[in-house]
Design brief:
Distance between the termini of chain A: 42 Å
Number of strands of chain B: 24
Number of helices of chain B: 27
CATH architecture of the largest domain in chain A: 3-Layer(aba) Sandwich
CATH architecture of the largest domain in chain B: 3-Layer(aba) Sandwich
Shape of chain B: elongated
Strand order of the largest sheet of chain A: 3-2-4-5
Oligomer: heterotrimer
Strand content of chain A: 15-25%
Number of helices of chain A: 8
Distance between the termini of chain B: 58 Å
Number of strands of chain A: 7
Largest interface: A-C, 31 and 40 residues
Structural class of chain B: alpha/beta
CATH superfamily of the largest domain in chain A: Response regulator
Strand order of the largest sheet of chain B: 3-2-1-4-16
Structural class of chain A: alpha/beta
Chains: A alpha/beta (227), B alpha/beta (704), C alpha/beta (300)
Helix content of chain B: 25-40%
CATH class of the largest domain in chain A: Alpha Beta
């Protein structure tokens, strides 16, 4: 899941300051799951902005709210064409992909990000999300017993733990497990410790050059026959 | 993707959300009158007795009678029994009847039809039929052979169970409605009634004829049948009983007779029953109270012969054992050879059952057990225009079944008189039938059933005053709060909005939502405890409570309070979300409610778990300088409610701070976390809000 | 044929002594030069730390140049935190050309413990990959498989953590470093000789030299601080307790006492091949330690 966090209210207020009519647009997929930008958060932000406006006495925005199933596909944005006719800015609670899609679909309306898209991760318990994947484009989870050293090791190193690991925790954040200790334990459990003894050469940081693109469709020339 | 595709897609998307459907809870399904029990129980829990009484009266014209003597099939079906003990619905109904001012209620009706209807018999079926027909505008006459109205209610049920005054009040009200009552009038011929101008007749003569034991010496003096015995007592004739009394039988009549005998002064009263305790048809509570009053019950014993000897009765009894089941499904008692023994007693009361006694002159077709035969749909007998219902048709049954029969008969008689095709009512809602799973039961707080206060056995056997007293407020509310709200829980109304984020699954204290095989979240209606937590936490707002009232309640109450606050122009004002159940159910929360001074506007909520962050923000937006949420703490009938409210409070506090408001403007008062008087805490809170308000006014002055 | 004076000493069976100097945060290198002068003749080599604990400082390469200038034997500490493979290779070419031939290959502390917490952590390589990369350069090619116009040769070292609580992963990595080309190891701070002995039992099968890291602590509070905040340092409770017995103001002396005791024991029992003294800001007391500890083979 893409996980994000809503921006602080002050930052959002500064962002929307120049615009009078603002549509707060939520996203019904990842942002709902991580509770940063679904319908409930849209409503909450709407109420908070109105309260801020009333209390401070300045700012004369008119807000509208809506949530689409996803923002990252233009077809979903086609569904809100009628709602953006008289809007000065769209405050999107979708991830960065969504905000950019909105900017592309409605090039004459400023698209503002209401959340900070943070990572790809999962949640084991309510209210806590952990980063799990860095989208490195060169997945090596087979070598590390299903634990990603690039995401879960703060240095992203590949040949075993650094000297900073203490009590199985990371030097950078004592609440975080040292990924390499986790990997070691699980490889031992699987009887695959020799995978840790191998030398892993430096990563290809440009596995897919940024901005990345994956093309899954085959290109077939016009008038070509089989065989 | 062409434009047409988009339009088609949009068109298919535009659909109104489905209404959200409820289920009939087991209590309502079990009640012959199909009363909206969960509704009035919830109103009692909220302390709204008058509204509760209204709901009761909607389904039952004589709630005070049922409040005393109903056999409560609802309680037997109550699923709370799967957790600890069923809700004491009947006792709560009595609470609502008494405290809701049933006595004050006047009835009236006007005559809009010309067809007269005669009702033969003034038992519960007759009374109910009269009531409903009168409401429909018909002139109604009730004929009662006895000197007093009520049928079995009058002559069968002892006064320590149903006081005279209660019955008299109900009969009085019928007179107020314009129903003609003719007591001491035995109907001997139905033709005569039609000659007198009645267009329809409802026969509801009950089942008063005692069954004979069929043993030698049954006719001896000193042997009396149960129905006659109770009849005499209830009509004021006081047969004196001395010495030892034995009652034969195991039903409610037998118990009633026995307990009456105790109150009349018999030295020793015992019951002989031919089967064992588990097969005894009498109400278990009655049996227990009888035992407390000193009655002895001998099980698996039956009399075989009675002889009068020296002014006393010598009764030969034989012991029984249980053999194969008989037609009723209960195991047949079989005499044990050579087990005969004799007992010397003074009076024997035979109460082994009753049957209707239909006059031959009525020319009605009579069937098994001497019961009148009727068409199951029209309730008509073999004679046109003559209908029958109640014990006369079913054999001895319960008061509530008779009331239901009377109500149905009224509508069938109306159909007949208006030449309408009698349509059978279709069931609208599914009944909730599933049992609670152990994992759900595990999480439900087990509080045990609060029984209404009972007079001590020594005190109560002295006279015929009522045995059972009424709850006090706190007990009634806390007993009513035990209701699990079957079938009124949460459902995912907007399945397309659900992102399967698993929040509902994770936050539910009862572990109710689950992922089915196709990876869709299901919230089984028979497990949901209707706490409202998942509804408030769902990030997609896809979950609602099934009862439409529950959904809009807080918003309506909040808007109402805000409007009042705005009109009063009192500043600063504070909005407090207070649990309505706690108002009467917990002494401390009540003191907070009542201690709220001017400028504090209470928004009653049906459990604080339903208060969402949006509600709090709205209160602040509409001018509240402070907001608090007050909940029941330990006494909350649901789990984890305070925890979730606090999560939302923390979230709103962060926003307050960012807006430049003090986070202390938002407080939770949850009773278990403080030993202080909440009213005092509220005062302090109000003071602090006053301080903030003044400070902000000064700041504004300074700025301008 | 040794690539440096230090490498010669490595293969000489002498008891080795190295120490480290932390460069200044700024361009005023006078104190550093003073320390270099103080120590250059008393130890076999001087490490210059490289933005140690992720705190920005005058670079190791610059410090090593100064050591060389003043006549000492430098060990160039290279961390992977701040520079990518191009920058590191380039720096190594420069280092070699200026006679800096000893390299200690480290992964580097994480950005979070330092004073530029918003900086981008590079970690293009880790310590093992760094060792391999240098070996590749030594063979005349860079990491892009391009021919080098003149290949450098180095004496390579790495670090190891014998007192780690999960020891096996450290040993696995140690072996990888040996296989990648490390010739000497300077350990993280040793406080418990038992763990050193156990480690040496295992490490002695490899043809590498181990120098035990000795940290000179100045007080119990400093020990606690390092325990909680400095990566790679686990001060034993016994040591902290011993430090707290010192009178006020005499903490450093206690720390020196402990250091000396450790060095003496290591020397006398021949536990490993040498010591690496880390005075952490108190560089000036290193000569005193050396005097008292009097390891054989020390320069007068």
């Amino acid at each position: 899941m893409i996980v994000a966090e809503q921006k602080p209210l002050e930052e959002i207020r500064r962002m929307i300051a120049p615009y009078e009519r603002v549509l707060i647009l939520g996203c019904g997929t990842c942002m709902t799951v991580c509770d940063a930008g679904g319908e409930r958060e849209v409503s909450f932000l709407h109420n908070a902005l109105r309260l801020a406006q009333t209390r401070s006495g300045n700012g004369s925005h008119t807000f509208s709210e809506y949530t689409v199933k996803r923002q990252c596909d233009l077809e979903f944005l086609d569904l809100i064409v009628d709602r953006v006719g008289d809007v000065d800015a769209i405050l999107s609670l979708g991830c960065g992909i969504g905000v950019q899609a909105i900017a592309e679909r409605f090039p004459d309306i400023p698209a503002l990000p209401g959340v900070n898209t943070s990572f790809m991760g999962a949640s084991k318990e309510w209210g806590v999300w952990d980063e799990r994947c860095a989208a490195c484009g060169d997945c090596r989870l087979a070598e590390t017993a299903g634990i990603c050293p690039i995401t879960r090791c703060t240095k992203g190193i590949l040949n075993g733990p650094c000297a900073g690991t203490k009590n199985g925790k990371c030097e950078a954040n004592k609440d975080m497990d040292c990924a390499w200790i986790l990997i070691y334990k699980r490889l031992e459990r699987l009887g695959q410790l020799e995978k840790m003894r191998r030398y892993y050469p430096p990563r290809n940081f440009r596995a897919i050059p940024r901005p990345k693109r994956i093309v899954s469709k085959a290109s077939i020339g016009v008038g070509e026959n089989d065989g | 993707m062409g434009n047409s595709n988009i339009k088609n897609y949009q068109a298919s998307r535009v659909k109104e959300p489905s209404y959200g459907h409820g289920f009939t809870p087991p209590c309502q399904a079990a009640c012959p009158l199909h009363m909206n029990i969960s509704e009035y129980i919830d109103l009692v829990a909220q302390g709204k007795v008058m509204e509760a009484l209204q709901v009761i009266r909607d389904g039952n014209p004589f709630p005070s009678i049922c409040a005393y003597v109903c056999t409560h099939p609802c309680e037997d079906a109550c699923r709370r029994g799967q957790v600890d003990k069923p809700i004491a619905i009947r006792a709560l109904k009595r609470f609502a009847v008494e405290f809701g001012g049933d006595r004050m209620i006047q009835l009236e009706a006007e005559t809009t039809q010309t067809e007269k209807v005669a009702i033969v018999g003034s038992g519960p079926a007759g009374l109910a039929c009269a009531y409903y027909l009168r409401k429909l505008g018909y002139p109604v006459t009730i004929f009662e052979a006895h000197s007093e109205m009520g049928g079995m209610l009058r002559v069968g049920i002892p006064q320590y169970r149903l006081p005279r005054e209660v019955l008299d009040t109900e009969v009085q009200r019928l007179t107020q409605m314009g129903i003609e009552i003719r007591t001491n009038t035995r109907v001997v011929s139905l033709e005569l009634l039609f000659d007198m101008g009645y267009k329809a007749v409802f026969i509801t003569i009950g089942a008063h004829q005692s069954l004979r034991m069929g043993i030698e010496g049954e006719e001896s003096p000193g042997v009396i049948d149960g129905a006659t015995f109770l009849h005499e007592v209830n009509l004021g004739l006081k047969p004196s009983l001395e010495g030892t009394v034995a009652v034969v039988g195991g039903g409610n009549v037998a118990i009633d007779a026995a307990r009456t005998a105790v109150r009349l002064g018999a030295n020793k009263v015992g019951i002989l029953y031919r089967r064992s305790r588990t097969e005894m048809p009498a109400d278990p509570t009655e049996v227990e109270q009888a035992l407390e009053e000193g009655l002895e019950i001998m099980f698996l014993v039956a009399p075989t012969r009675i002889k009068r000897k020296n002014g006393r009765l010598s009764v030969t009894c034989v012991r029984m054992e249980l053999g194969e089941p008989d037609a009723s499904g209960r195991r047949r008692p079989v005499p044990i050879k050579e087990s005969a023994f004799t007992k010397e007693i003074d009076t024997l009361i035979a109460a082994i059952g009753q049957a209707p006694q239909t006059p031959g002159d009525f020319h009605l077709r009579v069937g098994r057990g001497s019961t009148i035969q009727v068409d199951p749909v029209t309730l008509s007998t073999n004679q046109t225009g003559v209908f029958a219902g109640g014990d006369a048709v079913t054999g001895p049954a319960t008061v509530v079944e008779a009331l239901a029969a009377g109500r149905l008969a009224a509508s069938r008689i109306d159909d007949y008189l208006q030449h309408r095709y009698p349509l059978v009512d279709k069931e609208e809602q599914e009944s909730l039938i599933g049992d609670l799973l152990p994992k759900t039961v595990e999480m439900i707080k087990k509080t045990g059933r609060l029984e209404p206060p009972i007079v001590s056995p020594e005190a109560r056997t002295r006279d015929f005053k009522p045995v059972e007293l009424i709850y006090d407020w706190e007990a009634a509310v806390n007993e009513a709060r035990r209701c699990l709200r079957c079938g009124m829980g949460a459902e995912i109304l907007f399945q397309d909005k659900c992102a399967t984020c698993l929040t509902c699954l994770r936050v539910c204290p009862y572990h109710v939502p689950y992922l089915d095989d196709s990876g869709t979240i299901q919230i089984p209606p028979d497990q949901c405890q209707a706490c409202g937590i998942c509804v408030a936490e769902c990030p997609a707002k896809a979950i609602v409570l099934r009862k439409p009232y529950d959904r809009r309640h807080i918003t309506e109450e909040l808007e109402h309070a805000l409007k009042s606050a705005a009109e009063s122009k009192f500043k600063p004002f504070i909005v407090g979300f207070c649990c309505q159940y706690g108002l009467f159910g917990t002494g401390a929360l009540a003191s907070l409610w009542r201690g709220a001074k001017a400028g504090i506007w209470i928004v009653p909520v049906l459990c604080i778990a339903k208060v969402e962050a949006d509600h709090i923000l709205r209160a602040f937006e509409m001018g509240a300088e402070g907001v608090f949420i007050a909940g029941c703490g330990e006494q909350c009938a649901r789990e984890d409610t305070a925890f979730w409210v606090r999560q939302r409070v923390e979230k709103v506090r962060k926003i307050l701070v960012q807006i430049g408001l003090e986070s202390e403007r938002l407080q939770t008062f949850v009773l278990d976390t403080t030993n202080e008087d909440p009213a005092k805490e509220l005062d302090r809170f109000a003071e602090r809000i006053g301080g903030f308000y003044l400070a902000s006014l000064i700041m504004q002055e300074v700025k301008s | 044929m040794a690539n440096s004076l230090f490498e010669e000493k490595l293969y000489s069976n002498e008891f080795l002594v190295t120490t480290e100097i932390g460069p200044p945060k700024g361009v005023d290198t006078s104190e550093m030069v003073h320390h270099i002068d103080l120590l250059k003749d008393k130890v076999d080599a001087i490490n210059v730390t490289d933005n140690q604990s992720s705190v920005m400082r005058f670079p190791s390469l610059g410090g090593c140049l100064l050591v060389k200038e003043r006549g000492g034997e430098p060990i160039f500490q290279v961390t992977c935190r701040d520079r990518n493979r191009l920058a590191i290779q380039a720096d190594l070419l420069l280092a070699y050309s200026r006679g800096i031939r000893n390299v200690l290959c480290l992964t580097g502390d994480s950005i979070d413990v330092g004073d530029h917490k918003e900086a981008k952590p590079v970690f293009d390589l880790d310590s093992v990959q760094l060792l391999r990369m240098i070996k590749t350069m030594e063979s005349g090619k860079d990491m892009g498989s391009n021919e080098l116009k003149g290949a450098p040769q180095f004496c390579l070292g790495a670090s190891v953590h014998p007192e780690a609580d999960f020891i096996e992963p450290q040993l696995i990595k140690f072996e990888k470093k040996v296989a990648a080309g490390a010739q000497f190891f300077q350990t993280q701070g040793i406080f418990d000789l038992g763990s050193l002995r156990r480690f040496m039992q295992y490490a002695s099968q490899f043809n590498v030299k181990i120098l035990a890291g000795i940290i000179v602590l100045a007080s119990a509070r400093m020990a606690q601080y390092m325990n909680n905040n400095v990566p790679g340092i686990i001060v034993s409770q016994a040591t902290i307790d011993e430090l707290s017995t010192a009178e006020k103001g005499k903490g450093l002396q206690k720390g020196i006492e402990i250091a000396v005791r450790l060095i003496k024991t290591i020397r006398e029992e021949n536990l490993c091949h040498g010591v690496h003294i880390m005075a952490v800001g108190n560089e000036k007391i290193v000569p005193d330690i050396l005097e008292v500890a009097q390891p054989v083979g020390m320069h007068p």
